[in-house]
Amino acid sequence: MKILDITLIALFVAFMGALGLVPPIMLSFTPVPITLQTLGVLLAGGVLGARRGAWSMIVFLLVVAAGIPLLSGGRGGIGVFVGPSAGYLLSYPLTAFCIGLLISRFHQLRLWNILLVNLTVGIFLIYLIGIPVQAFVMHIPLFKAIQLSLIYIPGDVLKASIASYLVFRLLKSPVIYRTLQKNAETL
Ligand SMILES: O=C(O)CCCC[C@@H]1SC[C@@H]2NC(=O)N[C@@H]21
After folding, report:
1. Is 114 a pocket residue for ligand 1 (Cβ < 6 Å)?
2. Does ipTM come in above 0.95?
């Protein structure tokens, strides 16, 4: 792993921490908050590429597990990995990886392609892992957990749109594209 890779991964962990400074929106009917940090997950793969994106999420989760309160609302520690949000958190590395992999496969970068990846694979994977774990931890039927999660969709669509636009604009720059994407596969 090169210095550039380690620097970018560290920067992204810091960025996730900065997004965590925005207070979560707590809901009365579910313990899983609305948080801006999902924007960071969607950006990680697109901006850093698959492997660095996944690594940035793994390092972020390890730092959180070590007790550093980087999650929105100043949360951290092992406890969050056995709570209702655990599945969502654990989905972050895989989600960043898959987004990065798919975006790096495009021959031509188009905003719609990136948006499609973020909306389908990105949001879908987070929910696919997060919702069953939430149902299991809360001892509620899967269908009930799916119903509870509908509230996140408008915000997540907005975050996917913002992430797609930012990734599109960043990768449109040849210099940034070469630095971020072409070096990514060497990891
Ligand atoms: O910080 C945590 O405890 C993890 C929160 C997970 C939040 C999930 S991710 C998908 C959905 N979108 C949100 O804004 N909140 C939920």
Report:
1. no
2. yes
Q: Which residues, in sequence order, are bridge partners of residue 71?
A: 75
Q: Whose CA is nearest to atom 11 of ligand 1?
A: 152
CATH number listed for the domain at residues 3-181: 1.10.1760.20
Q: Exposed e or buried b for every residue in 115-145, given b needs 16+ CB within 10 A?
A: bebbbebbbebbbebbbebbbebbeeeeeeb
- For ligand 1, the distance from its centroid to the CA atom of residue 41, given in whole angstroms, is 11
Q: What residues does each domain of the chain span?
A: 3-181
Q: Determine if ligand 1 sits within 6 Å of the CB of residue 38.
A: yes
User: How far is Cα 165 from Cα 161, in angstroms, rounded to an integer?
Assistant: 6
**128-141 pLDDT tens trace:** 999 999 999 999 99
**183 vs 22: which has the higher pLDDT:** 22
Give me the DSSP letters along 59-71: HHHHHHHTT---B
What whole-number percentage of the chain has pLDDT above 90?
86
* Helical residues (DSSP H) of 106-172, grouped into ranges: 111-117, 123-138, 142-149, 153-172
Instruction: Tell me the per-residue pLDDT of 49-96, one tens digit each, with 9 for 90 and over.
Output: 999 999 999 999 999 999 999 999 999 999 999 999 999 999 999 999
Ligand 1 atom nearest residue 159's Cα = 14
